[in-house]
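Figure caption, in words: inputs first, then the predicted bound structure.
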Amino acid sequence: MSKTTETIFSKIIRREIPADIVYEDNLALAFKDIHPQAPIHIIVIPKKPIPTLADAESQDHALLGHLLLTAKRVAKEAGLEKGYRVVINTGDDGGQTVHHLHVHILGGRQLNWPPG
Ligand code: 5GP
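Bound structure (guanosine-5'-monophosphate present):
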């Protein structure tokens, strides 16, 4: 499953391409999705370029927890008090297109279940 770790998200981290960044700390970055699937659609990424969730290792456990807590923080700051969805597309069947682990935060409308 492991693929190159240099992606468009690496360029966003390095500010080589623009992004609407809503949160940053030493471990994580959050920015608005360029093709939003809901009124609020934010992506949270680790600065460490783990290609997919399937590539995460036990040494990443604190980082993975930090990503979820960052998602919670970003969702609250975005005003999603009625709820939201957190998605990690993983691998080809999971619909992952950017091979840098990322957490989608979707909200601002009633979301359907199951997803397609
Ligand atoms: P995936 O399909 O891999 O789970 O999600 C990748 C997401 O990254 C997609 O929702 C896509 O719209 C978003 N995306 C891809 N390229 C860019 C970009 O250059 N800037 C931003 N802000 N989002 C991007």
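The chain has a mean pLDDT of 96.
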